[in-house]
């Protein structure tokens, strides 16, 4: 039994707000004005900013006082109504997690814009509730995200934030509510930046092979595991081909902050892993991206015979786990 569970059982904890505060608010000013936010601060765990109007994606995050997420120059912003072409990027605020899909991932393709619409869809039926039992104390945040374009898709997202351990679990259950087969590419865009991704920080992925997306990305094949800056240049994208195993894993250590992160995901649903790096000053970002698709758009995947689809009535469940520890 954990300390919080014991304190509750013994009647020593008057109010769970002391160790698991939840703040549901409306942003008062700035680019995200009017948007809903949920701040969850788990004692001994992660402090998360959850964004219901951005598909329950994760904004800024902290562990033991250390910022974990990269935040772009755009910062926290409201969703866009028009997402054709490259518009998506103008409201890409970064944050710990931005979900890409559900119709297209990466390059605009087949009439769908960059990275699809998911992170610009509002969640409905959102709840944030505390649970305490012998396993420990946690906040469970959940909601439903509907994408009605083409065949209707529905995602039920469940985020479990544990106290007394740096663990967050994200479970998405996606269902094709239509009566036809529909493309359903999906990529989880985890973003890390300063001060976590800096100095002696190192990324570890047990790759069998690393494939650069284009000639410019070849420059990062030998240096992908460490933070670097260049004077200027395009982004670089690598695909890590992993060996056998039920789980994929990426580990990021930041000894200068005394923190390490481990990201795990089930490979049955997310068999591919991409890495995004932008080495330009003012960016200095690392993206770790479990996916079921490429980063070249759904037309490219269709031509390769690798386009992920959902049959009518089919349900797909994805599970990702973030764990933070002290070094």
Structure write-up:
This protein is mainly beta. It has a single domain, classed as Beta-galactosidase, Chain A, domain 5, CATH 2.70.98. Helix content is 4%, strand content 43%. The protein is built from two helices and 21 strands. An eight-stranded antiparallel sheet has the order 7-8-9-10-21-17-16-13. A hairpin with a 2-residue loop joins strand 4 and strand 5. The longest helix has 7 residues.
Quick gist of this model?
The chain has helices at residues 3-9, 298-304; strands spanning 22-26, 36-41, 46-51, 57-63, 66-67, 97-100, 124-133, 136-147, 153-162, 166-176, 182-183, 187-192, 202-204, 207-212, 236-242, 247-254, 259-266, 272-278, 285-291, 309-310, 315-326. By secondary structure, the chain is mostly beta strands.
- Give the mean pLDDT: 96
Assembly state (oligomeric):
single chain
Number of domains: 1
End-to-end distance = 24 Å
Low-pLDDT runs of 5+ residues are none
CATH architecture: Distorted Sandwich
Report the top-level CATH class: Mainly Beta
Q: How many DSSP H or I helices?
A: 2
Helices and strands in order, then pairings?
Elements lengths: L2 H7 L12 E5 L9 E6 L4 E6 L5 E7 L2 E2 L29 E4 L23 E10 L2 E12 L5 E10 L3 E11 L5 E2 L3 E6 L9 E3 L2 E6 L23 E7 L4 E8 L4 E8 L5 E7 L6 E7 L6 H7 L4 E2 L4 E12 L1
Antiparallel strand pairs: 1-2, 2-3, 3-4, 4-5, 6-12, 7-8, 8-9, 9-10, 10-21, 11-20, 12-19, 13-16, 14-15, 15-18, 16-17, 17-21, 18-19
């Amino acid at each position: 039994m954990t300390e919080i569970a014991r304190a509750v059982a013994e009647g020593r904890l008057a109010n769970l707000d002391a160790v698991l505060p939840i703040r549901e608010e409306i942003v008062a000013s700035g680019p995200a004005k009017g948007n809903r936010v949920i701040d969850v601060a788990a004692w001994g765990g992660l402090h998360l900013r959850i964004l219901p109007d951005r598909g329950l994606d994760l904004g800024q995050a902290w562990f033991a006082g250390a910022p974990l997420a990269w935040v772009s120059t755009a910062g926290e912003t409201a969703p866009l109504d028009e997402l054709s072409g490259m518009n998506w990027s103008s409201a890409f605020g970064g944050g710990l997690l931005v979900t890409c899909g559900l119709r297209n991932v990466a390059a605009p393709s087949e009439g769908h814009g960059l990275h699809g619409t998911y992170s610009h869809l509002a969640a409905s039926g959102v709840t944030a509730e505390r649970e305490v039992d012998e396993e420990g104390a946690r906040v469970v945040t959940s909601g439903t995200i509907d994408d009605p374009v083409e065949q209707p898709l529905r995602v039920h997202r469940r985020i479990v934030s544990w106290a007394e351990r740096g663990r967050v679990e994200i479970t998405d259950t996606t269902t094709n509510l239509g009566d036809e087969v529909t493309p359903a590419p999906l990529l989880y865009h985890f973003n890390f930046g300063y001060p976590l991704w800096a100095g002696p920080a190192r990324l570890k992925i047990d790759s069998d092979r690393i494939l650069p997306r284009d000639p410019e990305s070849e420059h990062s094949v030998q240096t992908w595991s460490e933070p670097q800056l260049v004077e200027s240049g395009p982004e670089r994208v690598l695909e890590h081909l992993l060996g056998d195993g039920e789980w994929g894993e990426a580990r990021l250590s930041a000894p200068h902050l005394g923190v390490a992160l481990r990201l795990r995901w089930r490979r049955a649903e997310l068999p591919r892993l991409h890495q995004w790096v932008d080495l330009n000053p003012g960016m200095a970002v690392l993206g770790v991206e479990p996916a079921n698709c490429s980063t070249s758009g759904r037309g490219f995947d269709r031509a390769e015979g690798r386009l992920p689809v959902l049959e009518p009535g089919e349900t797909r469940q994805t599970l990702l786990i973030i764990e933070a520890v002290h070094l």
